[in-house]
Amino acid sequence: MINIQKYILPDLDIMDSTEAVSACVWQPDRTYLVLGQSNKAETSLDMVAVLADQITVMKRPSGGETVILTPNTIVIAVSFATETLKNPRAYFHTINESIMAVLAQHGVKNLLQKGISDIAIGEKKILGSSIYRKPKRVLYHAVLNMAEDISIIAKYIRHPAKEPDYRQGRSHAEFVTSLMAEGYEIHIEHLMAEIRERFAPENNGAMAVLLNG
After folding, report:
1. 20 to 30 A from 76, CA-CA: which of 93, 161, 188, 194?
2. What is the pTM for the complete model shown?
3. Full domain range(s) for residue 36
């Protein structure tokens, strides 16, 4: 039986931030599997592999499907105040555009927003995101695959029950990629610093306007 832990990772604190915009960008120290709010371990995970390798499993409060966090990924969380809750697509679009702008500065080409909340290179996903909404507060959660081997994802995570239309039933290996697999060797610390800068306090005013406009 898998012990599902409460979500206690580094971006937890910004869920209750009182800032107009607050961000946490971090690199996992080891492998974690994080279930979406409506996911169940027995249907989302390869239970035998997870138990054999003693992988920590948590459940986050946001929606979306199960994700894997490893030292070869970056977690991006953005929390912001809003008086009126909008269609989630608007929030995904605004924040993903900011992340894509940073990636483009590193020469990453053919970046596209796909499905409801993904960033892809062409037709292959490199970032998935989800949203958790509270009264007057929204939390955006994303995982960017820097260099994780897709076979690791396939080892632990089953094909999701729900998938974006552009996936078209493709397996993890056919659907997911990484920046490294696409030929982009970007220093992870530099990229994290640049993404943090996009959501830094001095830029919060402009970002808050975009998110609430």
Report:
1. 161
2. 0.94
3. 4-212
